[in-house]
Here is the input.
Amino acid sequence: MSTSILPPGAVSPQDVAVAPAMPDIMAQKQTRKGVLGYLLRHPTIAIGGFLLLLMLAIAVFAPYLWTKDPTALAPAMRTRDPSARFWFGTDMLGRDVYSRVLYGTRVSLQVGFGVAFFASIIGLAIGLVSGFVRWADSIIMRVMDGIMSIPSILLAIALMALTRGSVGNVILAITIAEIPRVSRLVRGVVLSLREQPYVDAAIASGTRTPVIIWRHILPNTLAPMTVQATYICASAMIAEAILSFIGAGTPPIIPSWGNIMAEGRALWQVKPYIVFFPAVFLSITVLAVNLLGDGLRDSLDPRAAKRV
Here is the structure.
């Protein structure tokens, strides 16, 4: 058996054969470590994301989770206590509360995501124009101040009084009340960004205003706007439940958590489960969105990243 002595710096044939596989293995380990490390550094994102995905799964697969028709009436089965047949009991009209609560997840998430999306898009456009175009700032902000002077829930009630009850109208009413939040946030970010040297350089070079906003201003507003959208989503779900609870939201035939609680408040002392179960689902969903928003805020904040 002969032993070959390699000169310094030389690579043996065995090392050459093993070398190509090493970067792939290291890259896979680094990727796994990065995702796991990110979730460990931000547990609120992991918890909130898991709970929100669970609620989304319930909303999507509600017909397959041993539910019944949420609108089917059964007067002979009214106000039955929770049992093996009716897991959450029945209401005063004999409808299965379990089925109504699970289908109510669809309404709440639809309103929350819809309001967050439309309020973010419209508020982003208004905030960009108001923050960058100086002559339009005072006009736009006075309109936003006028809207914000009215409590959002009262404004939503007033808008719903002018229309008929439906999920679309609820989304529209809450969106109008939430737009000033996003627009003022984006405006504040734009006011600080437009004084940066790179923006002055773009203006001096003759770059058009829409291009400056698209390339230099808009990307820096997405992080705070994303965090704000999560809080708007949570508040929109609460607002929808309040509107439905007082009879100014979705029609009673639609199984929403607010409607279920409104129908069970008359029997609260003797049949508390009618109000308890939708309230628990609403609390968990709002908690999930708020946890996700808090985690995104800490993750996207460069000062918090440095502390970690």
Observations:
- Confidence is low (pLDDT under 50) at residues 15-23, 25-32.
- The domain at 41-68+83-301 is CATH 1.10.3720.10 (MetI-like fold).
